[in-house]
């Protein structure tokens, strides 16, 4: 059934694009979560595992600052090529980082002992984060994304990814093109 849905989505997107027509957009008002395009999963060699450009720490569980505790150890690793993309390339849909965790952390779709791929892509008129887990039976988590513009060439070809701490919660952060970084709270967006 899943292969059938993929074939239909692929046919509806590829054929008009190859014929020179416009690629149909999926309205955020009516699109079910599973209909949202997700880019191809890159091979492991496309992620930077260097300590200086990735992050490895415990994510917080509970309601901070009063009732929280340290959660699972989680890695976030940037896609090496992300620092050389244009904004248009990023907006076409790209995996910008991967997350590997020892335990579950639902907020970023982490089921524990799985790999989660973080993609930024267009949904209707806005950009969203999509967290796709490799855990069997999981569905994509569609979340917010905030793009912070720094200017072309800002990252000088070096991508980074980090866990950020807001006043009360963890955020994911990563280079998403040569002149911008992206940040996400990892919470599910409501369908409208």
Task: Give a written overview of the molecule.
- This protein is mainly beta and 192 residues long.
- It has one domain.
- It is built from 2 helices and 10 strands; from the N terminus they run αββαββββββββ.
- The protein has helices spanning 2-18, 87-91; strands at 55-63, 67-78, 94-101, 115-123, 126-133, 141-143, 146-149, 161-165, 170-177, 180-184.
- A 6-stranded antiparallel beta sheet has the order 1-2-3-4-5-6. A 4-stranded antiparallel beta sheet has the order 7-10-9-8.
- The longest helix is centred in the N-terminal third of the chain and has 17 residues, at 2-18.
- The protein is globular, with a radius of gyration of 17 Å.
- Residues 1-34 have low confidence and may be disordered.
SSE diagram, text form:
Layout: H1 2-18, E1 55-63, E2 67-78, H2 87-91, E3 94-101, E4 115-123, E5 126-133, E6 141-143, E7 146-149, E8 161-165, E9 170-177, E10 180-184
Antiparallel strand pairs: 1-2, 2-3, 3-4, 4-5, 5-6, 7-10, 8-9, 9-10
Order of helices and strands: HEEHEEEEEEEE
Strand order across the biggest sheet? 1-2-3-4-5-6
Q: How many angstroms does the end-to-end distance come to?
A: 26 Å
Mean of the pLDDT scores?
81
Q: Shape from CA axes?
A: globular
